[in-house]
Design brief:
By secondary structure, the protein is an alpha/beta fold. Helix content is about 35%, strand content about 20%. It has eight helices and eleven strands. The strands form three sheets. The chain has a seven-stranded mixed sheet with strand order 5-2-1-6-7-11-10, sandwiched between helices. It has a two-stranded antiparallel sheet with strand order 3-4. The chain has a two-stranded parallel ribbon with strand order 8-9. Helix 3 (about 35-45) runs parallel beside helix 7 (about 180-200). The chain is globular, with a radius of gyration of 17 Å.
């Protein structure tokens, strides 16, 4: 049975282990986020069994912003200044120009993101959500996408920008905006699940070496 499992393609394995029960995602976000880019990925993660926490620059509530007006709010679970990133398996970054601008100016938020990078944990970012990652230097050499207006910022950070609904490159999943959410959520769940599979399945080469 184990032999047949390892001969399956990734596309066959992922549906079997789709549920992310026992795993945790931090959504790092601030005032001015794009509502759909937070609530829809959050719902997709929770439906996959993942525990999701909203991490922000302060406690209380934060509000979305769209079309020059404030919109739907959400309660913050933990402040980034007290949350421990090591308690989370995955990081998700919603878009929203104001949200991203707030995050990239906060040293603790940058350090929070850096912890996921250092631990080689998957990160999913949509629209302007990619922008704060510039401060970590993680984007250099990566192929990714984002909201088109920040293309120059992304390329100046050393990344290769492409116009595509979703891009996955070395633990980083990115999309352009709300119109791409369906593809973004699908690939985010696939990459998060693939990471779970990698963690939970024994290293066969190391195992064989002990025999």
């Amino acid at each position: 049975m184990l032999e047949s499992f390892f001969h399956k393609k990734e596309s066959d394995i992922v549906p079997i282990l789709k549920k992310l029960s026992g795993y945790k995602t931090a959504i790092l976000v601030s005032d001015g986020f794009e509502a759909s880019e937070l609530f829809e990925p959050k719902k997709a993660l929770e439906e996959a069994g993942c525990e999701v926490h909203i991490i922000s620059l302060s406690e209380g509530k934060i509000r979305s912003f769209s079309h020059n007006s404030w919109g739907k709010a959400i309660s913050v679970d933990f402040s980034v200044h007290t949350a421990d990133p090591r308690e989370y398996d995955y990081l998700m970054l919603p878009g929203g120009a104001l949200n991203s601008d707030h995050l990239r100016q906060d040293a603790t938020a940058i350090a929070f993101m850096q912890n996921f990078i250092d631990r080689k944990r998957p990160i999913a970012a949509i629209c302007h959500g990619v922008q704060p990652l510039i401060e970590t230097h993680f984007l250099r050499g990566k192929t990714l996408t984002s909201w088109p207006s920040i293309r120059t910022d992304i390329t100046n950070a050393g990344a290769i920008w492409i116009d595509k609904e979703v891009v996955s490159d070395h633990r980083l999943v990115t999309s352009r905006g709300p119109a791409d959410l369906k593809a973004f959520n699908e690939v985010m769940l696939r990459e998060f699940t693939a990471h779970k599979v990698h963690e939970t399945i024994p290293n066969i080469e190391s195992y064989v070496a002990t025999l």
